[in-house]
Design brief:
By secondary structure, the chain is mainly alpha-helical. Among the domains are: 109 residues, Serine Threonine Protein Phosphatase 5, Tetratricopeptide repeat; 70 residues, Tetratricopeptide repeat domain (Serine Threonine Protein Phosphatase 5, Tetratricopeptide repeat, Alpha Horseshoe); 70 residues; 63 residues, Serine Threonine Protein Phosphatase 5, Tetratricopeptide repeat (Alpha Horseshoe). The chain contains 51 helices and no strands. α21 packs antiparallel against α22, α31 packs antiparallel against α32 and α41 packs across α43. The chain starts with 6 loop residues before the first helix and ends in a 5-residue tail after the last helix. Keywords: Coiled coil, Repeat, TPR repeat. Pfam families: TPR_12, TPR_8. This is MalT-like TPR region domain-containing protein. It comes from Pseudictyota dubia. InterPro entries: TPR-like_helical_dom_sf (IPR011990), TPR_rpt (IPR019734).
């Protein structure tokens, strides 16, 4: 049974034999010791080491009583093996040593049993990293096995394997490989132990990987993987380890797709075994990140690297060298992705750690400063870039006698930063210094030398030394021609040379150069599209200067077409790079200049269309102010052209509708919702007349107009328009279409927002169903889930609410990361649900998590005002950094205000009232500056302001603020909305404190009516706080009958829901007794 692998059956049979044996022979028969030894072996195989050692010890006692010294030695050997497995090394060594001494006395020095005990001792010493002693034992064991069993025996192979490990630990790789090869040949022939064979092959692969013999390493790891899957299964750590090593090797040979496959299998296994937050998982993520990066899958690479960094921080803290290296890699990766702010943050963290661990003036610090300088340069932070490069050079020269190539690169970058800062004399010095080094270190003709000559020419030209600039550019062009550089690199120098001729009025010469560029062999086929476009644009500008307008128009049309192609202007979702944006707008402006030469109607139409195009380019670049200005100009020109028409020009009307539509969307993004409503309303009228009501463009404009009303919190008007847009889109595209789903989604949000809970739930579920059918991302539907969570919370259905918010948290965390402000908002909502359920400890914990995200978000601006996320306290005061935060987000002030008010709410929840007030007041100021006076965001900010004033015992001010908040909320929301109820209850508290009991009662009565409309009478009474407060007010106002009525109703409700012995029941009885005393009913 044991040989066949049926260990549990074998154990059962042996235990039966032991029981019978004890009955037959008594407790101390020699044969029983053998049975116990067998039971010990089976328990050891099964990993039940405690049971194994118990049986071995019983066996030992019996054998000692019979004086059979050899069997005693064997028992001690077995006990030593179990103790070693339990990590009790000192005891294991003692048993093994006793066994060895006894066996040597009985069998001599060269017996096979001696070899086995020596090998066991070698294993113990090797596990303790005492490799010299282990080497002695394995060497002697190997000699004995070879003497008795021959060179090909399995036990010889085990010793060779272990000796290989020892040689590898000594970095004697050739000796290690020799022993591993011997071991693998023996194991392959004997096929007794595939597990050990897998480790031998894995170790050989590791050595070949170090020696950069990648094909051999791949073979070894691949074979090892087969053996490990056979021995341990596909989901074992041993298998995952070899998959990781194979992935690393495939990465080195450039087989990135297969590397990704191996990494993913290893990752799946390790996450299953250890969880996602484990160091071994981080190790796989690092390799997987490199593979994805090499495949050009930078988003996936960044995710993997971020996970690895997060885990390393959790295990090793924030200050380990490995973490600094990963932060540096992440910084470079995010720079490649053009996410420069993220790149800068990672590089700064790498810099901090390296300075801490390696010292301020280490070469590692110099390298990171160099990378950071490049990143800052690409963010147009030229002064900071220059400072970082200067510091990098200073450190580098501490370690070098003179400039080397790396130092020359730093100096070259310093020159480029100085150029941008108009420090051209200093830039020239840097370029000349870098050029001197590169001329010495590089071959006589090198593209870097041509580049530096070009840079020098640019600075000389800026200083007015055009002759020197032209000479340097001529040298750069000649050098580039001799090197056979690309058309782009050659064209760059020729364009700049032509530019100098233009600047000095030598247009004939510049025209020749532009024509030379366009006439370069295969220029149209080989040159990058932006370079071709730039050549046509520059030629067009020069032709305008020499008044060759017809040719200029031909060239500018080519330039515009090329710029639009390379910037993918038709894709409105893509953001234009700064250079693309500048060139495109420049080309449009030249086209505008040419179109405006003649005052005829066709020219006017073209001018209007070009203004429209310029505006769209501004939108794509995020320059909304400029976009609005251009759209307004397009609107003016197109309306003027309409007035010149004898009859209605449908094409012009459609163009005007398009201009007004895009202008409206732009105004929505700027937060100018009233103006957006005006523009989109005009666009809707025009497009409806042009196309009729059932047209896609009409539904698009209607949807956007509804969106403007929604953002202006005019929900009633938004609901009407979204309903119409949804119906039109259903008619045009069907029920299961992204556009239909979008209108339906916004409709559900608006209906939910005003407090129409039942209709809101129905629409939200319908919208979710449509989105799921068209397989949209979870992030698209997150606001629907948020609505459902809010509705359930408002209805007092807290468990359902938490389910929605927990799902929302998972989605947002997955898509947006750990530190997005939307995540903080979701956590705030979860905290509010816990608070409503009376789970104060849980809510406090959740609010603290949300606050940490806010601190991280604002800390990027706060500088010295910020504290580490681990700090238990928030920033000392948000006041000093809020102006900087507003300045940083001046193009999106509304989003900034929303972030501020969330921070304020969290500060208030965590007991930092003064700091909360700073944030609430700052957000209210922005809201009033941008939004209409009745916007719901102003109502919320006023409510929070009033709440803070109540806590500060400033009742009269609070009452005025809260009344204004109530007016706005009642204007935007249904009277049954929970926010309206909250305002009414807080106002009742304030008026009561001011002695206005009648007013307080009126407010509470309205709150109770609203609650009944929202929840129904039965649910309304489930929470009896309002009725209880009304009872207290009636009592205070000497209206005893009304007070009795309220208290008796509350008593009935609380006894029914909480029993007769709750503290809340006692509270009501106390209040009821007080009324009866005042009424003289003492009994």
């Amino acid at each position: 049974m044991e040989k066949m692998g049926y260990h549990s059956t074998a154990l059962k049979k042996l235990k039966e034999a032991l029981k019978v044996g004890k009955n037959v022979w008594g407790e101390s028969h020699m044969e029983l010791s053998n049975l116990m030894n067998g039971l010990g072996n089976l328990h050891k195989i099964s990993g039940e080491l405690g049971s194994a050692i118990d049986y071995y010890k019983e066996s030992l006692q019996i054998r000692k009583s019979f004086g059979d010294l050899l069997s005693v030695a064997n028992a001690k050997n077995n006990i030593g093996a179990v103790l070693a497995a339990l990590g009790k090394v000192k005891q294991a060594k003692a048993f093994y040593t006793d066994a060895l001494r006894m066996k040597t006395n009985l069998l001599g020095c060269d017996h096979t049993e001696i070899g086995r005990t020596l090998a066991n001792l070698g294993q113990v010493y090797m596990d303790e990293n005492e490799f010299d002693k282990a080497f002695q034992y394995f060497s002697e064991g190997s000699r004995i096995f070879r003497l008795n069993l021959g060179n090909k025996d399995f036990e010889v192979g085990l010793c060779a394997h272990n000796l290989g490990i020892i040689f590898e630990s000594r970095s004697d790789h050739s000796s290690a490989l020799r022993h591993y090869k011997e071991a693998s040949a023996i194991f392959e022939k004997n096929a007794e132990d595939t597990a050990t064979m897998s480790f031998t092959l894995h170790n050989m692969g590791t050595i070949y990987l170090r020696q950069q013999k990648y094909s051999r390493a791949v073979d070894c790891f691949s074979n090892a993987l087969e053996y490990k899957i056979d021995s341990f299964g596909p989901d074992a750590e041993e298998t995952a380890e070899t998959q990781l090593s194979l992935g690393n090797t495939l990465l080195e040979v450039g087989d990135f797709e297969d590397a990704v496959e191996q990494y993913r299998m290893s990752l799946r296994t390790r996450i299953g075994l250890f969880g996602s937050d484990h160091l071994s998982v981080a190790e796989v993520f690092v390799g997987l990140s490199s593979a994805h990066e090499n495949l050009g899958e930078n988003e996936e690479a960044a995710f993997c690297l971020t996970e690895a960094i997060k885990t390393r921080k959790n295990w090793h803290g924030f200050d380990c060298d490995d973490l600094a290296d990963l932060e540096l890699i992440a910084g470079n990766l995010y720079r490649d992705m053009n996410e420069l702010e993220s790149s800068e943050n990672h590089l700064l963290e790498a810099l901090r750690i390296k300075k801490l661990l390696k010292g301020e003036d280490s070469l590692d610090v110099s390298l990171i400063l160099f990378r950071l300088g490049i990143c800052l340069f690409e963010q147009d932070k030229f002064a900071e870039s220059l400072g970082r490069h200067e510091e990098s050079l200073r450190i580098r020269l501490l370690h070098l006698a003179q400039d080397d190539l790396e130092a020359a690169c730093v100096v070259e970058n310093m020159g480029m930063a100085q150029q941008k800062l108009n420090q051209h004399e200093e830039a020239i010095k840097c370029f000349e210094r870098a050029l001197a080094v590169k001329k010495e270190e590089l071959p006589g003709k090198h593209e870097d030398i041509a580049f530096l000559k070009h840079c020098l020419a640019s600075s000389h030209s800026e200083l007015g030394d055009n002759e020197e600039a032209l000479n340097l550019l001529s040298e750069a062009i000649e050098l580039k021609l001799s090197l056979g550089v690309t058309c782009d690199e050659l064209a760059e120098s020729i364009l700049d040379k032509a530019g100098i001729y233009d600047k000095t009025g030598q247009h004939v010469r510049s025209l020749k150069l532009y024509q030379q560029i366009l006439g370069l062999k295969n220029f149209a086929e080989n040159a990058e599209m932006p370079v071709q476009a730039q050549a046509h644009l520059r030629l067009a500008k020069t032709l305008v200067k020499v008044e060759e307008f017809d040719d200029a128009e031909l060239e500018i049309n080519k330039a515009v077409a090329l710029f639009e192609l390379c910037s993918e202007i038709s894709d409105s979702q893509l953001v234009l790079e700064k250079a693309e944006y500048k060139d495109l707008v420049d080309a449009y402006c030249v086209a505008l200049q040419l179109a405006m030469r003649t005052p005829d109607l066709d020219s006017a139409k073209k001018v209007g269309y070009l203004h429209y195009k310029v505006a769209n380019a501004h939108v794509r670049a995020g320059e909304l102010d400029m976009a609005v200005e251009c759209f307004r100009e397009a609107e003016r020109v197109q309306k003027a052209a309409q007035e010149q028409q004898a009859s209605l020009d449908e094409h012009l009307s459609i163009a005007l509708a398009s201009t007004l539509h895009n202008l409206g969307n732009c105004l929505i993004d700027k937060g100018e919702f009233i103006s957006a409503v005006s523009s989109l309303g005009q666009a809707l009228d025009i497009s409806s007349d042009a196309f009729g009501p059932e047209h896609r463009d009409v539904s698009d404009t209607m949807h956007c107009l509804a969106l403007a009303h929604e953002r202006n919190t005019n929900f009633k008007e938004a609901i009407k328009l979204f309903e119409q847009a949804t119906n039109i889109r259903r008619s045009l595209f069907g029920h299961e279409h992204p556009l239909t789903a979008s209108s339906l989604r916004h409709l559900s949000v608006c209906v939910s927002a005003i407090g129409n809970n039942d209709a809101g739930i129905k629409l939200c579920k319908e919208s979710l169903k449509v989105y799921q059918s068209i397989q949209q991302s979870e992030l698209t539907t997150s606001d629907i889930i948020e609505c459902l969570g809010s509705i359930h919370m408002n209805k007092g259905e807290y468990e359902r609410s938490l389910t929605c918010f927990d799902e929302l948290l998972r989605v947002r965390k997955s898509y947006l990361g750990e530190n997005d402000m939307l995540l903080a908002r979701t956590l705030y909502d979860i905290g509010c649900v816990h608070s409503a359920r009376g789970e104060d400890a849980r809510s406090a914990k959740v609010f603290k998590r949300a606050l940490a995200i806010c601190k991280s978000h604002f800390g990027g601006v706060a500088g010295t005002y910020g504290q580490p996320e681990s700090s238990p306290e928030p920033m000392a005061s948000p006041g000093p950094f809020l102006p900087d935060y507003e300045k940083k987000h001046e193009k999106n002030l509304l989003t900034a205000a929303d972030s501020m008010i969330l921070y304020g709410k969290l500060l208030e929840k965590t007991g930092h009232l003064d700091n909360a007030t700073f944030c609430i007041d700052a957000s209210l100021k922005i809201y009033r500056q941008i939004l209409s006076p009745d916007h719901l965001s102003i109502g919320e900010a006023l409510y929070l302001q009033g709440h803070a004033l109540v806590k500060k015992k400033r009742g009269k001010e609070a009452a005025d603020v809260l009344l204004e908040s109530l007016r706005i909320r009642q204007n935007c929301l249904l009277v049954s909305h929970k926010d309206v109820e909250d305002s009414l209850k807080l106002l009742a508290t304030v008026e009561n404190e001011l002695g206005h009991v009648g007013k307080a009662l009126d407010f509470l009565t309205d709150a109770l009516d609203g609650r009944e409309k929202r929840l129904g009478k039965r649910k309304r009474d489930r929470e009896s706080h309002i009725v209880f407060d009304m009872g207290k007010l009636h009592h205070q106002n000497s209206e005893y009958a009304e007070a009795l009525k309220c208290f008796k109703e509350v008593l009935r409700l609380r006894r029914r829901s909480q029993g007769h012995q709750s503290l809340h029941v006692a509270e009501v009885l106390h209040a009821l007794g007080g009324v009866l005393v005042d009424m003289g009913q003492y009994d």
